Structures
1.
Amino acid sequence: MTQPFNSRFLSACYRLPTDATPVWFMRQAGRYMAEYRAIREKYGLLEIVRQPELAAEVTLQPVRAFGVDAAILFADILLPLQPMGLDFEFARGEGPVIHNPIRTLADVYALRPLEPEETLAPVMQAIRLLRAELGPTPLIGFSGAPFTVASYMIEGGASRDYKTTKLMMYAAPETWQALMDRLSTALAEYVTAQVRAGAQAIQLFDSWVGALSPMDYETFVLPYSKKVLEAAQSTGVPVIHFGTGTATLLPLMRQAGGDVIGLDWRVPLDNGWQAIGHDRAVQGNLDPVALLAPIPELKKRIHDVLRRAEGRPGHIFNVGHGILQHTPEKNVRVAVEIVHEWKTENGE
Amino acid sequence: MTQPFNSRFLSACYRLPTDATPVWFMRQAGRYMAEYRAIREKYGLLEIVRQPELAAEVTLQPVRAFGVDAAILFADILLPLQPMGLDFEFARGEGPVIHNPIRTLADVYALRPLEPEETLAPVMQAIRLLRAELGPTPLIGFSGAPFTVASYMIEGGASRDYKTTKLMMYAAPETWQALMDRLSTALAEYVTAQVRAGAQAIQLFDSWVGALSPMDYETFVLPYSKKVLEAAQSTGVPVIHFGTGTATLLPLMRQAGGDVIGLDWRVPLDNGWQAIGHDRAVQGNLDPVALLAPIPELKKRIHDVLRRAEGRPGHIFNVGHGILQHTPEKNVRVAVEIVHEWKTENGE
């Protein structure tokens, strides 16, 4: 059978047949792995991403351990904040904190251009190191999408209701537009720089976009996500467009762009694929909690996802959001095996 | 024109014509009101709900101030926890904390029956006081739905991923079933006791059910919600079934029951109504952040919701989730006026 690029993952991005369904996991490098925790005992998160050798090592851990079909660069969607002028840190036990959040047009004008090749040079260096190490396993670069990154910049951290972010849209749309304009330019430069450094695919994480109505998404988000997605696609690599809680946003996310649309578990994969259109690939959508379930239950749930994708190429198996902290490593290994052993109808 | 029950709200619950669209707001009594804050300076939340005069006073505040078309009892969905045997408190700045969460079948068997007329007597007394005070404005009683209440019982507080709750479903389904069985019995008794005390409608809050896939909802939640909803409907009052993030759950929520299905802003109201079926009424679905926007923007957004409901009776205007803390009282007053001034096509 034909499997271009010598990669299940890249083939599936382009809806080409594969010998088995490709699988990788969001946050596949992380605290649930003993190897990772050993490194985190010595280094903080930002220390790891600023040292290319460490970032590369952490990226490789799940590839070596579980035989996933793609590596994803170990980094954080908030890395562009500091070079753009925001005073940002990971506060112990509190998640990200931005001490000077964006609230006014003057704050937006004070943002610096990203210039990722200089200000995020360790990220680019980690990509180059990884390409030398990874062999045939493709490397996914990534960025936060403009809405999700903007929400941290405006709220000053994580949020439950995105009140300050939405109020900027509703009460100061010119401030919102100026911010999204600069941010989407910066993120477009960031993803293209990652591809130049060697990333073989790009995922855009719009993790929190499900907080919006379709009307607000269309007006306030779609044009800016589109700019980043088009920039990424213009490099020639496949692009994955991911969000959670997006059941009502899928047709608009498709319109914004991406060769592959990521789905969470709230939408059955077959229904989601239909809403997006079968001329795009899909990625997902196991509930990450299922990876903590007993193996027979996990297997049943993986098979349910695979069954809903059957009959056409273009499905990349993944969780619907990142792997959770106390996931047993064994379950991740077994999940990869279950996916690879599934007999696809479209694989021969 | 005909407007049975002398109430826009009750008429709309039964999809009967009204002279104007009825409007009330989830969490319409609360911290955004100066009158409420004055009371909260002297009393804790649980002190208010345990003193019927105070609970009644707080319930009446938004009815007097804004002319909403329904009152909703001031209470908390977690009130049944303590009488059932859970050591529960509102920790300062942390939200609800349960010190002995449910984790095992033995924990479930140790739960006490609710006996709401005795253990929650102040709630029943507040309802009786309110009926004497409210005149023609109907009083809505309420309860948390089994899933949402169970999630607090199991997680021990608020949760981002509902990991422990879902793992009980996936790894110990007999424990989950035993808990949901007892809990749905307790909540069914609680809502029927509220109606006996005088509540003229019941809302079931399944606020966090949007964390589930439709498949998990159908297996692990629907039968138990149905039991509570049927008990409420058997009393003869209209029943509202509410959740957030429910775009993919709406047909199943309809199946579980309710005369009225509540929608959040993530689904355009017309699309949501279609998914539910036009033989049910709908409630919603303004993004609560819009209530903090400048009046012209607020008006535009209210009109958009009203326009999507046009052409048939059976729409109750509301926010898609509770009113936020810093909402200007003036905006709430103006929102009620905007809704009432809208010329419905179905009202004459």
Note: Chain B has 16 helices and nine strands.
2.
Amino acid sequence: MTETVAEVAGAAGSRVTGDLYAEVQTFYARQMRRVDALDIEGFADTFTEDGCVVHAGGQRQSGRAEMVAGMRANLPRYRGVAVRHWFDHLIIDVDADDPDTVRVSYYTLVTLTDAEGKVSFQPTFTVEDELVRRDGRLLTRERVIHRDEPAAV
Amino acid sequence: MTETVAEVAGAAGSRVTGDLYAEVQTFYARQMRRVDALDIEGFADTFTEDGCVVHAGGQRQSGRAEMVAGMRANLPRYRGVAVRHWFDHLIIDVDADDPDTVRVSYYTLVTLTDAEGKVSFQPTFTVEDELVRRDGRLLTRERVIHRDEPAAV
Amino acid sequence: MTETVAEVAGAAGSRVTGDLYAEVQTFYARQMRRVDALDIEGFADTFTEDGCVVHAGGQRQSGRAEMVAGMRANLPRYRGVAVRHWFDHLIIDVDADDPDTVRVSYYTLVTLTDAEGKVSFQPTFTVEDELVRRDGRLLTRERVIHRDEPAAV
């Protein structure tokens, strides 16, 4: 599992700029405002028309229409709770051949706060996104969600 | 609840720079060091003299003196626990007419760790701040704290 | 505990750039991917050869070999759980005399997710790092971990 020094140096070569870091973080801040408000159509609009999500269980939703239907079916689980997605440890890589394609990996923690203010947690996840810039605006083209599993000891 | 593409494009127009993103994050890192150390006067000093905080319950504290008194009255609830405020998903907008006025929205999670190391959580909040730059230094002029409520399903 | 305005202005004088902020965040994102994967050698490789860690209990590990041995002895506590380290509120200071030495302070929350998806928490910590840039790549030279204690009320 150890990367060689050369691989690490290579990773450092594609160093992300501060401006792109802020742009990607802001994109997610806006996208999560929508999903946490259960604004399903608004959330789907942050994906490309042909965008897809591969859930941790392996289920794949392709295209905004399928995404919207899937999220609508899941709404009852959020009845009576405020859901919030928290991100951390973004790794941002611009495609070497296409500056408008950006791959991002990040950690996610999901809190559910009920009406009395009690906070509970969903399992933690690691997510891999492919973002594209269209008309100057970032959109998610693909999202693959991995449930965090115990590492081999 | 869906923003139009034009509105999103408008939002993208006021794109935050990496330098400002880092400056705002650093401002909050220092401000939270103070509040979490229960350094009430030091925390109040990160507000303008006429700064105000509107708490989730609707209570409004105006000016540093009122803020200090309010926090001092709340100190007993932090006896025996280490409080830490965690932020995420900052959305930073520079005022179109005044580059020294910056509006920031962010998520907050608050942990309380007791002497045995047991962690408990306060309800999650979303905060809207107005920051101003005075003599090159950011200060909070207004803070409005919203308790996260279940969205309509 | 109140800093004077001059001290705060001094802090603002060594303002971190957006590029460095993104670089340091990315360094930690990669370093935490390794520690959370229990990739002990890969984690040790993100330290200088003579790097050291001072744990919250006061125990000091000096050099990569001692670090690897210490982590290997601790592996059983992570059997059957996915560990994730979450960071927040980085304060980044470049050494005034050496631009390749960077001091960073940050908050850490550690989650443990078991096979059923239940999340538990370790106590919160505040960490002080000294990073150095070697051949263009950041490495940790020293890490001091402080368990968060209740502040005096």
Note: The beta strands of chain A are 47-54, 60-62, 81-94, 101-114, 119-121, 125-134, 137-147.
